[in-house]
Write a structure and sequence with these properties.
Shape of chain B: globular
Distance between the termini of chain B: 16 Å
Structural class of chain B: alpha+beta
Largest interface: A-B, 38 and 39 residues
Radius of gyration of chain B: 17 Å
Strand content of chain B: 25-35%
Number of helices of chain A: 4
Oligomer: heterodimer
Helix content of chain A: 40-55%
Chain lengths: 121, 189
């Protein structure tokens, strides 16, 4: 059973890391979680991002979920927002595509153009 | 929606859109009386009676109101619950929040499974760092009353300035919820 002592350890480790890199996020990931997104598998997309962030220890990535985005035919939809860069929207996402976006885009900074449905400044 | 956990996710997203700061979730399975209950309460913006009626009725729309703020999720869930020898109740007050209560027959042949509540809860908790969640799972089997609670308020106090989205915290929450689901035998409901 995980205990509050485990949480203290996590806090100490995280505080050390935040001293080194600051507490700002480099990239924000937004998963569309409206009714149609959910029906099309957005929860699995969200879970895969969470797994990747946890296993790769991506401490500078913020992941959030949001409601309907008006692109129902392209669900599940994911936005990648990075300061000073155009917002990238990926569509028809699934766990496999998420893992590719994490490696290519989030870790190595290369947009996966095959999955992009819109780019917005 | 294929299972109850996806309906729950849809309901949670409605609460998030209504700017809730706290969402309470209770899932209660009573195998002795063969009833199952799902309760969700938020302290979001709430709805007036007209919007509340509209949120529950798939056909309530006029040409002017074709753009509904709440989609088909709630009417579909209501319809399902009523087919499982159950009842559905939604209460709301502007400025106070919304309460949703579903109660139905657990063994009903048409009832969809509970599904993966871990992924619903984990995604919602991490994906909405601005919202506190209080989760309670109860499972009554003859002779045993299994119980699990998860609350982000004491968790946040312990974390201090470390965000809930920090990788090790994600793993911690996932483990905790996993154990809670196993301990209450909620995997195969």
């Amino acid at each position: 059973m995980k205990t509050l002592a485990d949480l203290k350890k996590i806090r100490e480790k995280a505080q050390e890391e935040m001293k080194l890199r600051g507490s700002n996020y480099r990239i924000k990931v937004v998963v569309g979680m409206g009714t149609s997104g959910i029906a099309m598998g957005a929860r699995e997309v969200m879970k895969t991002f969470l797994d990747e962030i946890a296993t790769r220890n991506l401490t500078d990535v913020l992941i959030t979920q949001t409601g309907e985005k008006g692109l129902s035919s392209m669900e599940p939809i994911v936005d990648i927002v990075e300061e000073g860069k155009p917002k990238i929207t990926y569509g028809a996402m699934n766990p496999e595509k998420v893992r590719k976006v994490v490696v290519e885009h989030i870790v190595n900074g290369r947009v996966v153009s095959d999955y992009v449905v819109s780019t917005e400044k | 929606m294929q299972d109850l956990s996806l309906h729950l996710l849809d309901i949670i997203e409605n609460s998030a859109r209504a700017e809730a700061k706290l969402i309470e979730i209770r899932i209660d399975v009573d195998e002795v009386s063969d009833r199952m209950k799902i309760f969700v309460r938020d302290n979001g913006t709430g709805m007036d009676s007209k919007t509340l009626a509209m949120a529950q009725d798939p056909f309530y729309t006029s040409k002017m109101e074709r753009v509904k703020k709440v989609g088909l999720g709630i009417p579909l869930f209501k319809q399902n619950v009523e087919q499982w020898n159950g009842s559905f109740l939604m209460k709301s007050e502007l400025g106070k929040g919304t309460e949703l209560f579903a109660e139905f027959q657990a063994s009903n042949i048409d009832r969809i499974p509970l599904g993966n509540i871990r992924d619903t809860l984990l995604g919602s908790i991490i994906g909405h760092p601005e919202i506190d969640f209080q989760v309670c799972l109860k499972h009554e089997i003859s002779g045993a009353n299994l119980h699990y609670e998860f609350d982000t308020i004491p968790l946040r106090e312990e974390l201090g300035d470390i965000p809930i989205t920090y990788p090790d915290v994600i793993s911690y929450i996932e483990n905790d919820i996993n154990e809670g689901i196993q301990n209450t035998k909620m995997e195969e409901i």
